[in-house]
Every structure is written in C-alpha cells, then in structure tokens.
Write a structure and sequence with these properties.
single chain; about 300 residues; alpha/beta; Rossmann fold; 2 domains; six-stranded parallel β-sheet
C-alpha cells in the first residue's frame, strides 16, 4: 500500500508551517486538504499559503477551480488520488475531514446532478406521504422522515433500481496513512483565531470579498459569508467578526470530533516545543526503510 503522510487540525493550529518543515525533511510534496483553498481568488480568507512561503516544496490542488465552478468531494477525491498515485512521497495537509477521508478510503462518489423535475412531480405530497411511498420501494432504508431532500433522493434512486438500503458503507483504506492531528486548547484557539482574523482584515480580506461581489460571486464559507452580510448592511463589522469567530470555533469542534471518530489520528499538542521533533520521529518510524533509502540515495 502506498504510504501517505497526513497533517490535520483546526484553523490556526499551525499545520502550514509544520508541514513545510516536514516536507523539506522528507522530500515530500504537499496536497491541499482544504475545501476552500481549491478555489482561485479565495486567498486571504482561507489563509492560503503564498508562493513565497512554500520554500521550494511542491504544492498541489490549490487554485484548481473558479469560485463559480462546482468542485465537490467527488472532484477532490479523483484529483487527490491521481496525485497520491504519482507523487513519490505525498503529504496531505488541511482540515476538511470528509475530503481527506474520501481520498484515502474506498468511498464511491458519482458525478451526477439531481433532477429537479423529479422533485416537482411530488411537490403536492407531504413528507409523511413521501416517506410512505419510499417504504413501498425500499422498506429497509433508513432516512430522516423530516428531511424532504433525502427522502426524495432515496425515492429517485429506488425508482432507478438503486436501493439505498443495499449500499454498503465502504471503510476500507486504499492507502496506508499516518494521520497527525494538531490539537489546541479551546481558549488558546480562540485567541489565535482573533489575532488571525485581525491580520486577515489588515491584509485586505474585506477588499477580497468586495472583489468577489463585483463579479457577482457570493461564497458560502466562514469569513466570506459574514463579511458579505457586513457589506450588505445586515451586520456591523464587529458583529461580523464575532460571527466569524463563533463559526470558526464551532467548525474546529466538528473537525476534532470527525477526525477522532472517523480517522483515529495520533494527537499532538500544537504548542509543544518538541512538536517538530515528535512529528519527525513518527514519520521516520512510519516510513521505515523508505526513509532510509531516500537518505542514502
């Protein structure tokens, strides 16, 4: 199995700086694992690494889509796997758990848009009536009876002969990953988030959002969404800033839960003075003979 180094953690945990040093030490190439940084022009708000900060380390899957493009987990999975397969020593760095897991595990995503005409055919039925209809075609399916969109999707699949109840969740790894999670105390994380937001605003974050506005682009991502509300006059700047911090803290909590429960990482203290040395030792042990071959070669 191909070995993949994975550095994950919440926004502001220091993933970027650590990954550069580790990539240099192991001649690795970095694959972006952030769902926002794949887009051109979403630079300041996503804390995207600048070319001048990459220090000669090859970086992939940054700026691969326009903000108006539909770049989904399906596209990320496809592109990330191609890179993993062709890069001698791949290192995924980011915080979008679903994207990273989709790349590493045997999940099958289909590039297919919903047929909205199908939804319109059943617009007169209540959720309960739709659910009863679904049960006629797929009686063993488990779906939230109040989630109309999911009921319709399951019904559409059933009518096409694809019973959701018969789909098995694939949890098999396609690669051998070493997953390192950089953990931060919540109080320290909030302090870092606030300092980072102020730095982003000083660097022109609002101007970045205005530039997107002028192209009729609205981005539904933390920071961009709240500053759009500020520019529209529904929030003051201070209110927008507090909303950004609140949303960032909530995301960090979800990220930690996802990675701990879904991917079982090795958890490292992001502020440990020996963080780099600890991570380096873990990677050396993980790579084993591969690392020795590279050093001696």
């Amino acid at each position: 199995m191909k070995k993949v180094i994975v550095i994950v953690g919440p926004t502001g945990s220091g993933k970027t700086g650590l990954s550069i040093k580790l990539a240099q030490a192991f001649s690795a190439e970095i694959i972006n694992g952030d769902s926002v940084q794949v887009y051109e022009g979403l630079d300041i708000g996503s804390a995207k690494i600048k070319a001048s900060e990459q220090e000669g380390v090859p970086h992939h899957l940054f700026d691969v889509a326009k903000p108006k493009d539909a770049y989904s987990v399906y596209h990320f999975q496809r592109d990330a796997r191609q890179l993993i397969d062709h890069i001698e020593r791949p290192m995924i760095v980011g915080g979008t758990g679903l994207y990273i897991k989709a790349a590493l595990y045997d999940y099958e995503f289909v590039e297919k848009k919903r047929d909205h005409l199908f939804d319109e055919m059943y617009h007169s039925l209540s959720n309960a009536e739709l659910y009863r209809l679904l049960m006629q075609f797929d009686p063993e399916v488990i779906v939230d009876q109040n989630n109309r969109r999911r009921i319709l999707r399951a019904l559409e699949q059933a009518l096409h002969g694809e019973l959701r109840s018969q789909k098995k969740k694939k949890d098999e790894l396609l690669y051998e990953p070493l997953i390192l999670y950089l953990d931060l105390d919540r109080t320290i994380l909030e302090s870092r988030l606030r300092k980072r937001l102020e730095a982003q605003l000083e660097a022109g974050f609002i101007q970045e959002v205005i530039g997107l506005f002028e192209k009729n682009i609205k981005v539904n991502a933390i920071g961009y969404r709240e500053l759009a509300h500020y520019l529209e006059g529904t929030l003051t700047l201070e209110e927008a800033k507090e909303e950004i911090i609140r949303a960032s803290k909530k995301l960090a909590k979800k990220q930690k839960t996802f990675f701990k429960n879904q991917m079982h990482p090795i958890i490292l203290d992001a502020l440990s003075p020996t963080l780099y040395e600890d991570a380096k030792k873990l990677i050396e042990r993980f790579l084993g003979d591969q690392h020795e071959t590279t050093k001696n070669g």
